[in-house]
Amino acid sequence: MSIYRRLYEQAYGPIPKDSSGRSYEIHHIDGNRKNNDLSNLRCVSIQEHYDIHFAQGDWAACHRIATKMKLDPKTVSEMSKRNVRNMIENGTHPFVGGEHHRKLAREGRHSAQIRSALGINPFQDSEWKRQNAIKLVEEGRHPSQSKKECPHCKGLFSITGYKRHVSICEHNPYKVKNKYKAPEKKQCPYCMGYYDPGNYKKHHGENCKNKEEVKNGFIQPVHI
Prior knowledge:
With 224 residues, the chain is mainly α. It is built from ten helices and six strands; from the N terminus they run H-E-E-H-H-H-H-H-E-E-H-H-E-E-H-H.
């Protein structure tokens, strides 16, 4: 969970969800995502969030939110194009210059230090991880509590188990179709033996050691 969402929940309680079960967004009123003062945070629906940034011409945010909303590919692509053009015009595109991105890297490290200082860095606070796991279990949202049905054998598996199982399921049509079959053996016309394709190509057929003798009538092919 992001810093600003955590701060908002600590101040106002759980962030609500819309009728589709999708969590509301936390909008930074001044457009600065680093300004996490409570007076700068506003809880809005995802559609409201998209409309706000669209009106502001913030195409990067629009592209991010449009992707999350699963809007049609044409709209998502258009937001991406506008964002790229905007980055090129203001010199922040990676193909334009590197100082901007070095600055972002420095700020990212600084942000991690702030998280640690506030005690909300999830990689630092094992107690937070424990409490968060307990919360997920109580709400029935912990990954270990979720089950997913295999579309091939109809078995129920944990999310992790499902990912491992579905591609190797014995009832998976692709697996059945491409199941390994032993290659058909081929008979050599000179020694009359039956061999796998690789062995036949290398040591038999036109490469058989009996070839010349059989052709010249010195020996008769021996049936194996």
